[in-house]
Amino acid sequence: MERLQKVLAHSGVASRRKSEELIAKGRVAVNGQVVRDMGIKVGVKDRIEVDGVPIARESHVYYAFYKPRGVISAVTDDKKRKVVTDFFTDVPERIFPVGRLDYDTTGLLLMTNDGDFSYKLTHPKHEVPKTYVAKVKGVVYPKDLLPFKKGIMIKRRRTAPARFNVLSVDHEKKTSIVELVIHEGRNHQVKEMFHAVGFPVMKLKREKFGDLTLAGLRPGEYRKLTKKEIQDLVG
Fold it and tell me: Is the pLDDT assigned to residue 146 strictly greater than 80?
């Protein structure tokens, strides 16, 4: 059983807030009866109508997607740039990205139509680790990144402690490859963390989400998650 406004939002009728407005205005009926109670819960067998039109109830779907560079982590873009859902034209469900990756960042992005799943994976309190590999300007020594372990101030907010590993250093080109593991998801966080310690990011890729990896995927490709993978991600 799920709250009515949540079911409306998942079905694509409107956002959760707008769905609550529809309920308050008496425009939603369950099994032929108009409801105005925000706390009402409905099951899969309940018939839900908005303005007399039955809503479509979608089954939850879950995908791992290898996001290429130059793609927006959104379902639409007012500037007509390519968005992640452009790669899912054969998927009938109305899916959306779990969190986001920057336009020029590549790597693992999860796609779903399950709002609870998305919340559990993106809210910091659940501490789901996300592993990035960054190519940065400068020769990095482990001591340079020690502030990451305690958290650093970015836009007057301290980041949560993060783990890192210097994978390689090119002394001739003065660049370094660093692995960083965080469990937050602020906009541009990884780039801003490296910038704060003096190593601007040149390239960035998300390698893992929890224990899930990009294995078997090439840029622009996706696959369904297994039941075990879904369970492992949400605990």
Answer: yes
Q: Which fold has domain 2-54?
A: 3.10.290
CB atoms within 10 A of CB 204: 22
HSE-CB for 2 with a 13 A CA cutoff: 16
Mean of pLDDT values over 86-100: 92
Burial of 229 (0-12, 13-18, 19+ CB in 10 A): middle
Identify the active-site residue in 37, 78, 102, 144. Answer: 102
3-state secondary structure of 121: helix
Task: Classify 155 in phi/psi space as left (phi over 0), alpha (psi -120 to 50) or beta.
Answer: left
Residue 11: pLDDT over 80: no
pTM assigned to the model: 0.81
Q: Is 3.40.1190.20 the CATH classification of the domain at 129-209? A: no
Does the annotation count 102 as an active-site position? Answer: yes
What is the rounded distance in angstroms from the CA atom of residue 18 to the CA atom of residue 11? 13
Q: Is 231 exposed, middle or buried (0-12, 13-18, 19+ CB in 10 A)?
A: exposed
